[in-house]
Specification:
This protein has 373 residues and is of the alpha/beta class. It is built from 14 helices and twelve strands.
């Protein structure tokens, strides 16, 4: 084992600490604040099971939210009835105009009727933790601009552990959790939770400007940055959480395939290269460790076993900050890593070659997307 291998492998491993250095969280403010009027907007389609959980979590908040607007899109389940049972404003979505996709259309309709000075867009599968809404509003009042939060990923079933690397790379790819922190502008927004003034929403053009974007959060972030409006990203631990793809591995594959490759190509080149080298280093460590076990050599076992263990510890350090992932997920990280590579390649094929994706039973064509902008 030579010193060159040691330096290269250590360098690849250290890259992980550079691109996911610190995840900033929302905090309560010690200063007394004069709260503005706040409207929460929730687009919902086929969310009969998840929507009541979110609305119940909102009802238990002690926070000055003036209205909760649920925009219900065409659903095959009882999403509309689930919304109407709660003390919220329910708006049944108008027919989808030509050139629009469902989520941007739902958000846009909600924003048009919202009365609040501040808009909070929430995905229907999120959950607000205790005092989470106060943390969100008070963090927004402290920072100004636009804040966006990636929910803490709560997993329950074994297959959900396969989302591990999507969480790591997704957070790192945003660009603001590196060693440079907020000195780097994020590539976009986290779609599940976005907070901005209605004034900023109108100035940026809102969802009308991203009406046909499958990954509307990144596109909307781009429009906001054009207006020189600052965007600040946060992690959701202790504030907002979600359980992604609870209906099985097929839903998970479709969900991650829907836009992950698009997000990757929008990532800053240095972060993209660092991520690729880091992943490559983890694969190399695994490969050589297995070879050392098959053809036993004590120096090789110690070196590559140490390299593999280093990745295990580092990956678990990353995962516990983004979700309640298990230690065994990090210990056997090659399994979720292979899943990540497979789904990423599938996403690339669907988006850039086949030019269509499928989500919640709807096939979304990307072939004519440019002509509708």
């Amino acid at each position: 084992m030579n010193i060159t291998n040691l330096i290269i492998q250590t360098g690849f491993w250290l890259l992980g600490f550079l691109f996911l250095f610190r995840i900033t969280l929302c905090r309560r403010s010690e200063k007394k604040k004069l709260y503005p009027s706040v409207s929460i907007i929730i687009p919902a389609r086929n969310e009969e099971k998840t929507l009541p959980i979110l609305l119940a979590s909102l009802q238990h908040q002690v926070s000055p939210v003036d209205e909760v607007i649920v925009v219900v899109g065409p659903s095959e389940d009882n999403t509309l009835k689930a919304a109407e049972r709660q003390n919220v404003i329910v708006k049944q979505s108008e027919s989808l105009p030509e050139g629009w996709l469902g989520k941007p259309w739902g958000c846009y309709q909600g924003a048009k009727v919202a009365k609040g000075e501040v808009l909070i867009f929430l995905d229907a599968d999120t959950f607000i933790e205790k005092d989470g809404l106060k943390k969100i509003v008070e963090t927004y009042l402290e920072q100004g601009g636009v804040i966006t939060i990636q929910p803490y990923h709560k997993t329950k079933r074994l297959y959900e552990q396969l989302s591990a690397f999507f969480n790591i790379i997704g957070m790192a790819g945003m660009g603001t959790f590196t060693v440079l922190e907020n000195r780097v502008k994020p590539v976009g927004l986290f779609g599940p939770c976005v907070v901005m003034s209605k004034k900023y929403y109108l100035e940026s053009g809102g969802h009308r400007q991203v009406k046909n974007e499958v990954v509307e959060d990144l596109a909307l972030g781009g429009q906001i940055k054009k207006q020189k409006i600052p965007i600040i990203c946060y992690g959701g631990n202790g504030t907002i959480s979600f359980r992604m793809y609870p209906n099985g591995i097929r839903e998970m594959i479709e969900g991650w395939s829907k836009g992950f490759a698009t997000g990757a190509i929008k990532t800053y080149i240095p972060i993209l290269i660092a991520s690729i080298l880091w992943i490559g280093g983890s694969i190399t460590a695994t490969q050589h460790f297995i070879e050392a076990l098959i053809n036993p050599s004590l120096p090789s076992i110690l070196f590559w076993g140490g390299a593999y263990l280093g990745y295990v510890i580092q990956i678990f350090w990353m995962l516990f900050r983004v979700g309640n992932f298990k230690f065994y997920t990090a210990l056997f990280y090659p399994i979720p890593l292979l899943f990540f590579v497979y789904v990423f390649l599938r996403s690339f094929f669907l988006i850039f070659i086949k030019r269509s994706v499928k989500w919640k039973g709807t096939k979304i064509s990307l072939k004519n997307k440019d002509s509708t902008k």
